[in-house]
């Protein structure tokens, strides 16, 4: 590795380890390259050019649109409706509300596509319900954090859209590939709850005075939330619209439901939603722009070629490299956010693995699962901090309570990594591979 590249990578790592904001660390490291590399000081216009062209990608428009759609669906009371539907389905089982937590996250995944949105919307409701039913608050908060990471894997998924844009991989294929692994994460957590329910004496929490009319009313109230992902995924798979157009349709659908069906969305609330979404989207776009510069620096220094030569020199088999990358991503998850990992490493490693025969769609699912699990690993895990803030439980207590669920998520990750059919069968059956 050349000296300029070593300086840039070292500077980036040092700034992040010192707690510098991610946007500043990436932007400053990229800028430093033009002063460290001989002959680059007169080419600073490339910095601005790469920054803006990195954000000027059509599919990136889907990110703020999906954020807005998820915010609207949360604001109009979709959370309670999904929780009630989950109670109808699994509340009568021993450990009912723990199952409700997981199933609710599965359903909300089709609305938001974001783990942090899942925790923010469902967390207060689920934790309060579980605490009233006698569950330990540490356990309730830890389960809420763990179940939320399904959201960005089950479609629609903002991280999978990012991977698609960064690697020119079919977003429809990625969405289909993420469905089964995302559900498997939830099933793994539910299997753990099954064991814990018997060990710790969890009780059932069925809906009181349940009749057919009550059940139909619960299903009817949740219908619009259930129908939303059907529109998005169905439209993308059928070719009616692109992922970006699907995001716009999702916003229009959410507005129609809020203003006409539920009639509980006001213009004042909509303005607040747009304000929050703009702030969130702006931070994402800044990271995208500066990460594009870093990606260009790595390509200009021929790092992908050097890594490919290193893999060939050591005669690494695909399973060895996948294991090494799983460990690499999980370690990075201790201190780097999910979107940053995707932006820095997806364009770097996808071509290398493709040359070794690993399908980019399969690798995309593996990488997104890794960075989502990183949200619940300290010290950086944003999901842990958000869960702690919502529940009032200290970070250390949530970490300890979440360790069993972290283990179950890692088991599912290994299965998805080494059994490609889990993620690739569905897109193959539907003709996307």
Give a verbal description of the structure.
There is one protein chain. With 433 residues, the chain is an all-alpha fold. Helix content is 78%, strand content 0%. The chain has helices at residues 3-17, 22-36, 45-55, 62-75, 78-90, 96-112, 115-132, 137-148, 158-167, 171-200, 212-238, 243-261, 267-300, 303-313, 318-332, 338-355, 360-373, 382-391, 395-418, 421-429.
Topology:
Layout: H1 3-17, H2 22-36, H3 45-55, H4 62-75, H5 78-90, H6 96-112, H7 115-132, H8 137-148, H9 158-167, H10 171-200, H11 212-238, H12 243-261, H13 267-300, H14 303-313, H15 318-332, H16 338-355, H17 360-373, H18 382-391, H19 395-418, H20 421-429
Helix pairs in contact: 1-2, 2-13, 3-13, 4-12, 4-13, 5-6, 5-11, 6-7, 6-8, 6-10, 6-11, 7-8, 7-18, 8-18, 8-19, 9-10, 9-16, 9-17, 10-17, 10-19, 10-20, 11-12, 13-16, 14-16, 15-17, 16-17, 17-19
List the main descriptive attributes of the protein structure presented here.
433 residues, mainly alpha, 20 helices
| Computed Rg | 22 Å
Strand segment count? 0
What do the pLDDT scores average to? 85
Strand content: under 5%
Largest sheet data: none
Structural class comes to: mainly alpha
Distance between the termini: 36 Å
Count of helix runs: 20
Low-confidence segments, ≥5 residues, pLDDT <50? none
Order of helices and strands: HHHHHHHHHHHHHHHHHHHH
Q: Report the oligomer.
A: single chain
Query: In which range does the helix fraction lie?
Result: over 70%
Q: How would you describe the shape?
A: globular
């Amino acid at each position: 590795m050349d000296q300029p590249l070593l300086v840039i990578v070292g500077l980036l790592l040092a700034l992040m380890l010192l707690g510098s904001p991610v946007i500043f660390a990436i932007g400053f490291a990229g800028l430093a390259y033009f002063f460290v590399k001989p002959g680059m000081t007169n080419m600073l216009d490339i910095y601005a050019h790469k920054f803006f062209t990195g954000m000027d990608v059509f599919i990136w428009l889907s990110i703020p649109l999906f954020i807005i759609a998820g915010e609207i669906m949360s604001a109009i009371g979709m959370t309670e409706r999904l929780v009630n539907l989950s109670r109808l389905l699994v509340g009568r089982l021993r450990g009912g509300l723990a199952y409700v937590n997981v199933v609710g996250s599965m359903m909300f995944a089709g609305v938001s596509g974001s783990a942090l949105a899942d925790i923010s919307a469902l967390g207060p409701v689920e934790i309060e319900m579980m605490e009233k039913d006698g569950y330990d608050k540490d356990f309730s908060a830890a389960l809420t954090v763990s179940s939320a990471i399904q959201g960005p894997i089950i479609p629609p998924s903002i991280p999978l859209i990012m991977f698609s844009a960064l690697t020119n991989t079919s977003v429809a294929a990625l969405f289909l590939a993420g469905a089964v692994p995302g559900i498997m994460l939830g099933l793994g957590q539910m299997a753990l709850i099954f064991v814990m329910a018997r060990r710790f004496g969890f009780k059932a929490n069925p809906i009181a005075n349940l009749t057919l009319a009550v059940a139909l009313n619960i299903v009817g109230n949740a219908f619009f939330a259930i129908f939303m992902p059907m529109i998005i995924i169905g439209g993308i798979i059928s070719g009616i619209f692109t992922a970006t157009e699907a995001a716009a349709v999702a916003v229009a659908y959410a507005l129609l439901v809020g203003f006409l069906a539920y009639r509980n969305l006001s213009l004042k609330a909509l303005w607040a939603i747009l304000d929050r979404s703009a702030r969130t989207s702006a931070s994402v776009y800044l990271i995208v722009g500066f990460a594009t510069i870093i990606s260009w620096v790595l390509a200009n220094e021929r790092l992908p070629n050097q890594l490919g030569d290193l893999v060939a020199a050591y005669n690494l088999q695909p399973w060895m490299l996948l294991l090494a990358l799983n460990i690499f991503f999980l370690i990075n998850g201790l201190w780097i956010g999910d979107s940053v990992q995707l932006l820095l490493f997806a364009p770097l490693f996808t071509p290398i693995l493709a040359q070794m025969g690993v399908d980019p769609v399969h690798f995309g699912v593996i990488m997104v699962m890794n960075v989502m699990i990183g949200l619940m690993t300290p010290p950086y895990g944003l999901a842990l901090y958000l869960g702690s803030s919502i529940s009032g439980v200290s970070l250390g207590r949530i970490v300890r309570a979440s360790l069993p669920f972290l283990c179950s998520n890692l088991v599912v990750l290994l299965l998805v990594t080494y059994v490609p059919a889990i993620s690739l069968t569905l897109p193959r059956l539907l003709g996307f591979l």
